[in-house]
Design brief:
The structure is a homodimer.
Chain A (H helix, E strand, L loop, with lengths): L14 H9 L8 H12 L5 E8 L8 E2 L3 H9 L5 H9 L5 H8 L6 E4 L5 E2 L6 E6 H6 L1 H25 L3 E4 L8 H13 L4 E2 L2 H7 L9 H5 L4 H11 L5 E3 L5 H17 L6 E4 L4 H14 L6 E4 L5 H9 L6 E4 L1 H4 L9 E8 L2 E2 L14 E7 L5 E8 L7 E3 L2 E5 L2 E2 L6 H13 L3 H4 L9 E3 L1 H13 L7
Parallel strand pairs in A: 6-7, 6-11, 8-9, 9-10, 10-11, 15-19
Antiparallel strand pairs in A: 1-5, 1-12, 2-4, 3-5, 3-17, 12-13, 14-15, 14-16, 17-18
Helix pairs in contact in A: 4-5, 7-8, 7-14, 8-9, 11-12, 12-13
């Protein structure tokens, strides 16, 4: 660093600043154009109510999505205010007039938020959130909503595939060191747990969300002792009933033998080894050899946990090759949704000032009108078809998915517990057609548009000209 | 939501919780095993000093990296404490004994942090951060350090390629809506600016980091007025000297003509149109047609700004096909580093209790000892070669890159201003060999190991057996 001012005490630079930064998820978490457009709307008295639909355009690698982000988004919306420091900043940019800044001082979100409950399965093109509010409010929250619904949805949808591939085996989130920032680390733990992971290594997420936390040991621990057995014994002494030994530091099979020796000592003292972890090599082959050693030693209940670069594809591969693995630790590939690190999520105007509007650009058509998604099940209870309809219709034998979460800017109900969301995911994914759950093949679930919604589109198209939107 | 307890007032669920969550980047931001290993070390009195090296293993798609994350990481380390609520939580997990929890109550980071300054170019396998501290401290901060150095480095390194491809044209960060969480949105704005982007659309980042903010308008604004010209005029009335018109809502060429008409009216009132934005279609072709219209209309200074799916590859493509674009808005692909959404970043034990240690697994060898990276320049001042040496040696004619940032857990100097970091990036990338700056071809910069460091490795290997680590 060039600026060498010796500092007797801790330089203040970072302290308060970081704290503030993370607190400050307020209305400045937005793209500048949302504010300049708002200033334009205000000046020209275009302040009527608008409805925006949030949806994901098609995805080449996901057959379905799991809705995430609702609890946090609703909580943020309900307390969205410009602080005086926010307003000072905006004033100092020199971009905005006093009238607009005065207006922002009184800003709050007064609108309606409709959304599918967290953990609900949805498909491309289906609105899973709709916002109806004065256009200035609806516009200012666009960026926030895309981010706060999008990322948890991205991760939950990825995690559901990993849970699917694990075929009932436990999956633990190990991603914290490689997530895209701090907030992502927390959201990944919550979203993967919601999607069916059984625990996380993320201690803060454990505290924050009451998610079970799980951990083993690192190679550095093994090498800090004189030999592998010493390290295992030392660990077992501290965690006599909750030890998982990492056995690949030197040689996995030798490591398994050392684990067996220490486990037997533990058993003589009335304790049990919880598991061993493999972290390198051919997991299918090694896990079978380790299992045989454990079974031959009379330790059939010791779990075999595997980690290192797992995702749904690698899990399916090792299980397909006969791996004897009880649990997977999954890190980076889940934590950044590595094969598809962003959702093509958009927020599109559907209604403004009492008029339905849509965008007609080729390949980017949107659906005008306040909408609802209806789901029909077959005789066996499986999801058979979705119908995108209007928010005011009812469709015989089909369940409407979006509920009203906020009205007049206030939450109507307490959000469900995370465990409840997790149960919903389990029941929802169990109701999916088998082809939809496959991780190796793109399959398109049937989604159609109701007659009434179709008619609205035709009316809009007839009367339009200028009423497009993108 | 199933749990339908009507709530007279705002349900409290989200309020305090979210605020707390973002404040709480403390020592619980860690993997559980860091804490269980710490408990093991403490019980067995293995509390000696350790040195860990942070580095990136090879990357298939990056020729170099830009170091990020130092300012925030050092600030967090300097105030790292377990709160009483953290300790209560750990106690409630039932995993830890009183002795260990008492020890954590007094925990702080007392170590040394050595690092290359933010914005420094570095290469695979080179340690760009080293931590020396009692092993318990060094281990507990592992997860935090990997995350907080890793993500800004990932993004800055991606952004540098985009800046390179833009060949001097302005690049603006438009990613906020698609970043992986809130914290990522802020870090992307800072890291891309550091790497040479000229502005961000992210208003909060503008406030937080004093980054220039920039914005245009969305299609929804255009469609909220009776015709495109009305929307342009309305916007220009509010922002008479800072307007960029989005011209592709209906038809880009017609949109350009409308922009020209409104711009001429603006000029008669003494104002100037800043630019027009293209957001769809063939950008090479459309930008040339729009430029011709602007030049023919006597408006050669109106900027042409292009957005929609840009990254270094698409920028190089459109410029290669003769696009007349002055500035690029770059979103998702930069904001999640889409082609490589995670760094293969690791934190490896290099020295413990006075002994140098290394890991020898095939393909995953690490370098024992406290290290330094030395950089040699050629006669023209370009980077010619890096030498990884010991922290105590000096290498004639080569500049040592890592500086001591913290000693005894305290920052020694005020961190440099972001503008200074940005200047360092510019000077560093200008000093790279041309082949290294190419975005289309993998090229390996020469990095070798000093004789003294090599000797340490040989000594470790001779005396080892057990002293491996991974």
């Amino acid at each position: 660093m060039n600026e060498r001012r010796p500092a007797g005490r801790q330089p203040g630079a970072g302290r308060g600043r970081i704290r503030m930064k993370h607190q400050a998820i307020g209305p400045l978490f937005t793209d500048l154009y949302e504010l300049t457009m708002a200033a334009g709307y205000l000046r020209h008295h275009r302040t009527a109510e608008a409805t925006f639909s949030l949806f994901v355009r098609d995805s080449p690698v996901r057959n379905y999505f799991l809705a995430g982000g609702l609890e946090e988004t609703a909580a943020i919306l309900s307390r969205l205010r410009f602080t005086s420091s926010d307003l000072d900043y905006l004033k100092k940019t020199g971009k905005f007039g006093e009238d607009f800044l005065d207006d922002l001082a009184g800003f709050r979100f007064t609108g309606r938020l409709r959304a599918v409950p967290e953990g609900t399965v949805f498909f491309p093109e289906e609105p899973f959130v709709e916002v109806t509010a004065p256009i200035i409010e609806a516009q200012i929250v666009e960026t926030l909503l895309l981010n706060s619904f999008g990322f948890p949805t991205l991760i939950a949808s990825k995690a559901a595939r990993i849970v699917e591939a694990a075929e009932g085996r436990a999956v633990v989130d190990f991603s914290l060191r490689r997530t895209q920032g701090f907030d992502a680390g927390l959201k990944v733990a919550r979203s993967t747990y919601m999607a069916g992971f059984s625990a996380t290594s993320n201690v803060l997420a454990g505290k924050q969300y009451k998610i079970p936390i799980s951990g083993t040991m690192a190679h550095s621990f093994v090498t800090a002792f004189d030999c592998e057995s010493d390290a295992f014994s030392a660990y077992a002494e501290v965690f006599p009933d909750d030890s998982v030994f990492l056995i690949d530091t030197y040689d996995t099979v030798e490591g398994a033998k050392n684990a067996v020796r220490v486990a037997r000592e533990m058993y003589t003292r009335g304790h049990r080894l919880r598991g061993v972890r493999l972290d390198s090599g051919d997991m299918a082959d090694l896990s079978r050899r380790v299992r045989k050693l454990l079974v031959d030693a009379g330790l059939p209940d010791v779990q075999i946990i595997a980690s290192s670069g797992f995702d749904e594809y690698k899990i399916a591969d090792v299980l397909g090759r006969g791996a004897e693995i009880d649990a997977f630790g999954v890190g980076t590939n889940a934590g950044v949704s590595a094969d598809a690190p962003a959702l093509d999520i958009v927020y599109k105007l559907a209604r403004f000032a009492g008029r339905n509007v849509r965008k007609l650009s080729p390949g980017k058509q949107t659906l005008a009108g306040e909408k609802q998604v209806f789901r029909r099940r077959d005789a066996a209870g499986k999801f058979a078809e979705d119908i995108i309809g209007t928010s005011s219709e009812t469709i015989e034998g089909a369940e409407p998915l979006m509920e009203t979460i906020m009205e007049d800017g206030r939450m109507l109900h307490r959000p469900p517990a995370l465990e409840e969301i997790r149960r919903r995911v389990r029941s929802q994914t169990a109701s999916l057609p088998d082809a939809c759950r496959r991780i190796d093949k793109k399959w398109t679930y049937p989604v159609r548009i109701s007659g009434r919604l179709q008619k609205i589109q035709e009316e809009v198209d007839k009367g339009r000209g200028k009423w497009s939107n993108s």
